[in-house]
Design a protein that fits this description.
This protein is α+β, with helices and mostly antiparallel strands. It has one domain: Gcn5-related N-acetyltransferase (GNAT) (Aminopeptidase, 3-Layer(aba) Sandwich), CATH 3.40.630. Helix content is 30%, strand content 35%. It has four helices and seven strands. A seven-stranded mixed β-sheet has the order 1-2-3-4-5-7-6, with helices on both faces. Strand 2 and strand 3 form a beta hairpin. It is globular, with a radius of gyration of 14 Å. The protein starts with 5 loop residues before the first strand and ends with a strand. The protein binds coenzyme A. Coenzyme A (COA) binds next to strand 4, helix 3 and helix 4. InterPro entries: AcTrfase_RimI/Ard1 (IPR006464), Acyl_CoA_acyltransferase (IPR016181), GNAT_dom (IPR000182), YpeA/RimI_acetyltransf (IPR050680). It catalyses: N-terminal L-alanyl-[ribosomal protein bS18] + acetyl-CoA = N-terminal N(alpha)-acetyl-L-alanyl-[ribosomal protein bS18] + CoA + H(+). Its EC number is 2.3.1.266.
Amino acid sequence: MSASQDITEAGPEFCEVYAAIHAESFEGSERWSASAFRSFLEMPRTLSLIASQDNEPTGFILARLAGDEAEILTLAVSRTFRRRGVAMALLRALRNRLENLNTTQLFLEVSARNEPAKALYLAADFEKIGTRPRYYADGSDADIMIWMT
Ligand SMILES: CC(C)(COP(=O)(O)OP(=O)(O)OC[C@H]1O[C@@H](n2cnc3c(N)ncnc32)[C@H](O)[C@@H]1OP(=O)(O)O)[C@@H](O)C(=O)NCCC(=O)NCCS
């Protein structure tokens, strides 16, 4: 359950952990390497949170800040720990931090074919505001979603 998740800010030292969880979660060219994660995690306007349970990483979220807006770049939960509230706990923790930074809008793009993720974001009170046709390598559309503080 989310209550047992420890959520902390994470830096570039977690790039290998992130790549491993991402590889479980995405296919082919959608996967990000450890060096790609390192580059993002070293950027000054990046905010990332890692969840862990009994010191075992269970999932993470990576966001980029720009003015009073933020964008979720990626979110993934280890297969073993899915449907236990990890992603929801990460979203809540991220939004708490964004509110403290006076960020008013949080955007993301999600494949229109990714039913688990779309269900998660709707359950977390995001709204769909648009579509990017054939945005992903597999030809799927991206749904653009927003959450406002
Ligand atoms: C999408 C993902 C992050 C969800 O993580 P999770 O920790 O399992 O999600 P949670 O347990 O916090 O789920 C919260 C709510 O989201 C919805 N949800 C999550 N996964 C779902 C699924 N497979 N089917 C239907 N609804 C789902 C439910 O409403 C769920 O609440 P409930 O369990 O009480 O019904 C996870 O499946 C994942 O890593 N997928 C691969 C990577 C990915 O798609 N990332 C998002 C890209 S934008």
